Amino acid sequence: MLRLFGGRKTAKTDEYIAVEARILPSGPDTVFVHDREGGHVCLLPSFDASLLPLLSQFRTAGDHLSLLSRERGAIASNRTLEEAFRRIHASGLLRTRSQILAGTTKNQTPTPPNISTIVWPTLNRNKSLSRSIEDYIAHNRRYGRNVRYLVVDNSINPTGSKECKQMLASIASGQKMPIHYCGIDEKRRFNKEMVQKGKGDGIPRWLMEFALIGESKNPMRYGVARNAILLATAGEMFLSADDDTLCRFAEPPSQHPGVAFSSTFDPTDVCFFPNRKAMLDNVNFKELDILAQHESLLGRAIADCLPLKEPEQQNDANPVVTARMSPRFARLASQGKGRVALTAAGICGDSAMSSAKIVLQLEGQARESVLDTKNHYDSAVSSREILRAVTRKTISDGSFFMTVNVAIDNQQLLPPFFTTGRNEEGIFALILRTCFEETLIGYLPICVYHDPPESRLFEPERVRRFEPGIGDMLVLLIETFNPPVESAAPIQRLQDLGQHLKELGALPPREFEGYVRFRWMAYLSSYINLLDDLLSRYGSSPDYWARDILALKDSARVFMTGRRISMLGGGAEKLQEKAETKRIQQIIGKFGELLYWWSPIVALARKLHEDENGLAVRL
Questions:
Q1: pLDDT digits (tens, 9 = 90+) for 358-390
Q2: Residues 136 and 50 in one domain
Q3: Residue 202: what pLDDT?
Q4: pLDDT tens track for 46-76
Q5: Are residues 223 and 168 in the same domain?
Q6: 215-219, 320-324, 545-549 — which is least confidently predicted?
């Protein structure tokens, strides 16, 4: 037994984490520390407060002291560090794991309803869409699931819409199963209805066009389809499936029982394969009800996701893993807050990524298996074939979100998707974290087969190029947002964020360029330091990996020091410098307006949906 705290015996297995705290100086050698959960403010020596970031993960007292000795042993003795640790504990700035888990039971929610709709966003891919729909219909029949089927067609071409509707009508007739459809005509009819019914709120028609149709000159309008899905399913629990996925499900190579809490950006593990055949030869497909898998977490409070009713009953067969939980997440859990509003399955097959840069930052066994030979490395940066999933059910307060196969609890307000360019799902998840603090993401240890009809490969040179788009810039702008009132409700936060983006969109172009350039400079300074740390940690070995890291650093520097920072691209037309900056600002400002208006838009869309006058029509 350890005797660390006033002689009281403390079991070796007790684990502690620092509280989520704000720190401000109170003199030359002391600081104020504000505990966000408890609300109290204490006075600490500056040295003690400097240790708090090292205590931001659950560890036993002994393990914490060992870490402090490794990290601060050069400037302080073990006795000094132990005394500082005692003072931190005595000040009420540490929480035990048992306290956090016990707190989760403060807010158990009613059992949520089942998933009622499966929806596919699509664009001119009738063959793969047909295959996917028929596969899901057959799958749901095997498990006795009765759901609505909905297709949101992103085509703005009347011929494309007509062909898609004809194909869907044929499936509906052959399967004796109704299918609902939302295309360009349905969106325009719905927009007109929304503006007429929303006169009291003053919803602008141009804003509905921006949300659901987007800019016709930019083919990357993934977000508008997802906005249509949110409005067409308002008040429902739904599953969204990519139009090139099938109901074949694989387990990750190592799968574990229990539930994990994670605050890391990406909690998934990734396996790389040189081609599709190698992937299929190395995965084990199994039969399961994919809707039931999502429903095991979707819409539930944290306590309702735990493997056993009482947290203290956990054991090796049903563990609750908290090693990657942050102080922020621990605060939410201890207050009984947090609801899983999104669940995501993993992927096997095509990675659905735009580049293979993830390979550069691999660690542990994944790094060893990919970087052991140049052939393996070259394969990983060119082949898109992967298996990616968590190894156990995981609940996260992070912002990693891929929409290949996801379920969404749309009973409560969620933000809209960004309408231009890539990374619309990452922006969506970041806004969730920023404005909807108690909304969590659940990850399933199941991989859905992603099987696009065309053969796909990465361009290997893209791993060496820094080429962000407007969505990446928007992430930086969102991260500069500071809520005027931290305790404000999500609706107010969403409107405040919208106002922030509107103001940025209204800046003089030169001032906007300067603001964006500084944000990129801060980001790239940190990013280049990360790349340098990788080179240092692994001794710039292997050399083929190190060359790509160095090339990526050079590309980032060229981007940063260029005469101007172009953000459109990715299919957008080329514009002169001033015109492009103006257009970027217009898009940012319009999205800010959408955030500001989104709550009344969703409320009216839900009413129309309940009155059977919603976005989709039955074929």
A1: 999 999 888 999 999 999 999 999 999 999 999
A2: no
A3: 85
A4: 999 999 999 999 999 999 999 999 999 999 9
A5: yes
A6: 215-219
Statement to judge: residues 128 and 205 lie in one domain: yes
- Tell me the C-alpha distance between 385 and 350, whole Å: 5
Please tell me the distance from the alpha carbon of residue 348 to that of residue 350, in angstroms, as a whole number. 7
Q: Write out the two tokens for 335.
A: 């207050």
Asked whether residue 456 carries a pLDDT value surpassing 90, the answer given is no
Residues 480, 499: Cα–Cα separation, whole Å: 13
Distance CA 319, CA 314 (A): 5
Is 561's pLDDT higher than 60?
yes
Residue at which a domain ends, from 92, 125, 159: 92
pTM over 0.90? The answer is yes
| CA dihedral of 569, 571, 577, 582, whole degrees rounded to 10 | -100
Q: Which of 195-204, 442-451, 464-473 has the lowest mean pLDDT?
A: 195-204
Least Cα distance to 353 among 402, 406, 421 occurs for: 402
Who contacts 21 (Cβ-Cβ below 8 Å, separation ≥6)? 33, 34, 35, 36, 52, 93, 327
Q: Would you state the pLDDT for residue 5?
A: 47
Output the six-digit token pair for 291: 């809707």
> DSSP letters of 340-399?
EEEEEEEEEEE---S--GGGGG--HHHHHHHHSSHHHHHHHTTB-EEEEE-SSEEEESS-
Contact 326, 281 (CB under 8 A): no
Place of tokens 């009413």: 607
In a domain, 183, yes or no: yes
Helix (H, G, I), strand (E, B) or coil at 306: coil
Q: Which of 92, 109, 133 is at the close of a domain? A: 92
Give Cα 241 distance to the centre of its chain: 16
The count of domains in the chain is 2
CATH code where residue 59 lies: 3.90.930
- Residue-wise over 30-68: b if at least 16 C-beta within 10 A, else e? ebbbebebeeeebebeebbbebbebbbbbbbbeebbebb
Would you state the pLDDT for residue 579? 75
Query: For 104-151, where are the alpha helices, taking DSSP H only?
Result: 126-142
User: Residue range 476-488: average pLDDT?
Assistant: 87
Helical segments of 506-542, H only: 509-537
Residue with token string 């497909």 = 285
- Residue 481 has phi, psi (to 5 degrees) of -75, 130
Structure tokens at 581: 């900056």
Residue 179's domain spans which residues?
117-240+609-618
pLDDT digit string, tens, across residues 564-582: 655 544 434 344 556 788 8
